[in-house]
Amino acid sequence: MCSMTTEPDNRLPVPALLRHPRSLSARLTLLFACSAALLQLLAAGYLYWGLRNSLDREDRALVEGKFNVMHRLLDEHPDDAAVLQSEIEHEAEANALLRYYIRVLDAEGRPIMETPEMAARLPAMSFAVPSRPAEAATPAIERRRLPQGSEYLVIVARIETGRGPRILHIALDIEHNRIILAEYRRQLLLALGGGVIFSSLAGWFVARTGLRPLQAMAAVTRRITAHNLTDRLRPGQWPTELQELASSFNAMLDRLRDSFARLTEFSADIAHALRNPVNNLRVEAEVALGQPRAAEEYQQILGSSLEEYSRLGRMIDGLLFIARTDDPAARIERVEFAAHAELAAVRDFYEALAADKGVTVECTGTAAIRGDPMLFRRAVSNLLANALKHTGRGGWVVLHAGAQPDGTAEITVTDDGPGIHASHLPHIFDRFYQVNKSRDQTSEGAGLGLAIVRSIMRLHGGEARAESEPGRGARFTLRFPAVGGPDPARC
Description:
By secondary structure, the chain is of the alpha+beta class. It folds into three domains: 45-180, Beta-Lactamase (2-Layer Sandwich), CATH 3.30.450; 235-323, Helix Hairpins; 331-490, Histidine kinase-like ATPase, C-terminal domain (Heat Shock Protein 90). It contains eleven helices and 14 strands. The chain has helices at 24-76, 81-93, 118-121, 175-210, 212-222, 240-290, 295-325, 339-349, 351-357, 373-389, 449-459, and strands spanning 4-6, 100-105, 111-114, 142-145, 151-161, 164-173, 330-332, 335-338, 360-366, 368-371, 396-403, 409-415, 463-468, 474-480. A five-stranded antiparallel β-sheet has the order 3-2-6-5-4, with helices on one face. A five-stranded mixed β-sheet has the order 9-11-12-14-13. A two-stranded antiparallel ribbon has the order 1-7. The longest helix has 53 residues, at 24-76.
């Protein structure tokens, strides 16, 4: 018995996004909206960051500029209190817009002059004591938040003048920046929300528009049924991304049409092949029941029926074997063996039949084959039985095994029988094909022996062919793949 197995259902992994049946339009809309929202969020964040940094740079530039002015005035007019007071009061007048506060203290920390209301808002004790005189560079500008919640940019500097050291306090109220940024955030959130809504609607429209070719493709496929496998998806009318899908779908339809054609042909062949044995059995039974007969006549009728039953059994076995081997998922166990030993075993099995018919059977050559030895014997047995059936007394049959230069192996069965006409050779391996009355009853049933040979060769990834000329015998060749090559059944 040969061993054929069926591969398990190895289903392709499904991406996580496709595991749950959701609308493709909804999925594309969601992805589009999320991408647009992320892009808008990044843009809004960048704009917000840019505005905040711009405001901070401007405020620091203003504080630094005011420090430079006061530093110059203290250097040039240390005794002119009127000039200093004018500058301070000038800043006090601009208090509503900029909210500058300036204070000048003596070396002991006593206020000399300051902006009105600065003492109440920013007492001198809230400023740090400068550790050294200010250099040419601007002292560090610090950000300071007071307990009441106001935030300031602050400079504390010790300046050497002709009247002795002076301590300078400069503060800029930046609370207005928080208000500006809060309003800007609100506007950004409104714009972001509107952008997400618009992106969702635009994504839905784009997805619906982009998927229309798929809807058109589905409309074509709905017209395809088991009785209408001729419609095709014309690749030229689809977008580039769907060209491969259309081509693959058309190829699948071609395979389905071929499968349906083979199934219909197989059914017709079975019906045709079973009709004659069943009719013969029915006629014999009707004749036997037509009138009383002797026991010997009943035995003769039963014996004839038994022959028909045997023929039916062989035919059914052959059909089942072909059906199993035609399954694309069928696999066989492969081992490497010497062809000469298997050919000799087949010859020995048919030795008595060959001697009875006066036919000489020889085995020649050698080759290594990787396959199923039992199936190999069955294929060679069918060919040898067919050759013995059609070789006359005194004829010969040669079984030869040969290794080819490309690593493949060829098994030939050659006889000197009457041969086969060239018009029959393309169909000789078809199921139930009958060349003539002398070749319609093989050992496997009505025309199934060579069909089984072809099925066995397909399982091995090889081929079977026949060569013959009327009056010059026939030559059947089985070509097996190279021993070291890949397993064709698993390609």
